[in-house]
Amino acid sequence: MLSPGVVLHGRYQLTRLVAAGGMGEVWRADDLLLHRQIAVKVLLPALMADTQFIARFRAEARMMAALRHPGIAQIHDYGRDAAVGPYRFDYLVMEFIDGTPLSERIRRAGVLGADETLAVVAQVADALQAAHDAGIVHRDIKPNNLLVRPDGAIVVVDFGVARSAAGTTGLTATGVVLGSAHYMAPEQAEAQPVTAATDVYALGAVAFTCLAGRPPYVGDSPLAVLGQLVHGPAPVLPPEVPPEAAALVRRAMAKDPGQRFPTAAEFAAAARAVVTSRSVPGPITAVPPPAGPAPEPAAATREAATLRDPGMTVSQAAETVADGPEPPAAAPLAVRDQVRRPAGTTSPAGRRRSTLVAAVLAGLLLVGAVAGRLLATNRTGQQPATLGASSGTSGPAATSRAASTGAAPRATTAKVDPPAALCGPPASKFTVVEKRRLTTPRGDLLATTYLLYSAVDASHCAVTVKEPGAGMKLKAYVFVQARKGVRILSDDAGQPFVARVDPNRTRCVYWGGSIDEDTAIDYFDEQWCHK
């Protein structure tokens, strides 16, 4: 979107792109007036269309600028309606922190000791309490957003997705779920109001990652992590973790917010009490120099969009920007921060994007429990229709050759919509009635999901087709079904597209698709009805 050398409002010259993600870009920059190095977070121009989001963001930027705490990166300035070429955007000017992400510390060490972990917890909790006292909930506490200075002090960065604590949810008006799945509290994943307890949970999840070397929940599919978070059992720390430290983490990560530490200050006090009881000095040790080239000093704001970090966001359109790897997880994954669902059930025009985590994840988890991955068998007990596979008697049988060659099957007639050729013979009976673009947080097109209808037998077909440049490693999913409930997903098995047919003759169907990559997932779930 921008390039080095660009000067914003005649004062802030961008020098180096540090990170990019679901909400914008973070740049290292020079303040030409005060001759100091700063960090500039540029919001995506697409977010400017969400007037409610921008109004809140501007108001809360003023609140965050008033925060004064050594453990919180300072906000220096806020720019409105900057214009560069065709783009118009807002931006934040922040303190540039010379530090290393905690995620890098974990990556090098594998796991951190209980005393070092609890020292981190105490410092971060102190900073969070200052924010909570000012009415601000961070909402994206994770290792990548905690910077370790050379002297061992911890600084919390990226309050860019923060919100006032006055009963807000985890969703913007455009359907952006804010936060990172591996460290997201259950109520946040379900788009319930976020409170200070949301940050307490996330900090508990960070402590778990420090002690275990992996996030609390991992999975083998993009939404499996959120499924475990909402419906799975509490994670268990390794047996070598001291019981008193494990008990502290368990309380912080209680799924019921009322069972967590009442405040971040009490969490900090409890962490220090455990360290004191063990008679071991508490301050975190300075991060040792890396064996290879030292990482780029981290900007004061990093929006982590990588929930495939071991710690995989939400994306979904969530996504945050990350400038360093998260500690490795048991299985690499990504998570979406972006979800869509209907506002009504009768007209496509009446739909709006909103969270469906609470409604859909229960089904996804059930599917994962039965199949061992985010796929379920169809009503006949067969594998879901994928490229070249048949979903019962009406699956895309004509695609078997493409399954082995990787090439999309040809349409049976010149008048047939290309996606119809993927729905099985006779392809000419299907007509595209809806389509949805699946993109990165920056708006780059990754795939398109089509909904097709057959007037011949009133059946429906859904197809997700990846863009040629997206790559085969990019996983695509699709579903279409007559009933609301467990989503029976098909995946592309590394092919260019995936198709699924629902033979039920119904007026309305539920359909959706998703795409994932290293830094984001785009996902939607909607209802479509015949007029």
Compose a concise summary of this entry.
This protein is an alpha+beta fold.
List the SSEs and their pairings:
Blueprint: E1 7-8, E2 12-20, E3 24-31, E4 36-43, H1 51-65, E5 75-84, E6 87-95, E7 100-101, H2 102-109, H3 114-133, E8 136-137, E9 146-148, E10 154-156, E11 163-164, H4 186-189, H5 196-212, H6 224-231, H7 243-252, H8 264-277, H9 357-371, H10 400-405, E12 430-439, E13 445-454, E14 460-466, E15 476-481, E16 490-491, E17 497-502, E18 508-516, E19 521-529
Antiparallel strand pairs: 1-2, 2-3, 3-4, 4-6, 5-6, 7-9, 8-11, 9-10, 12-13, 13-14, 14-17, 15-16, 15-18, 18-19
Helix pairs in contact: 3-5, 3-8, 5-7, 6-9, 7-8
What do these coordinates show?
- There is one protein chain.
- With 531 residues, the protein is an alpha+beta fold.
- It folds into three domains: 89 residues, Phosphorylase Kinase, domain 1 (2-Layer Sandwich); 178 residues, Transferase(Phosphotransferase), domain 1; 182 residues, no CATH class.
- 22% of the residues lie in helices and 22% in strands.
- The protein has a six-stranded antiparallel beta sheet, covered by helices on one side. Strands 12-13-14-17 form a four-stranded antiparallel beta sheet, with no helix packed on it.
- The longest helix is centred in the first third of the chain and has 20 residues.
- The protein is globular.
- The two termini are 41 Å apart.
- About 28% of the residues have low confidence.
Strand order of the largest sheet: 1-2-3-4-6-5
Shape: globular
Secondary-structure content class: alpha+beta
The rounded Rg comes to 24 Å
The percent range for helix content is 10-25%
Low-confidence stretches: 164-178, 286-416, 517-521
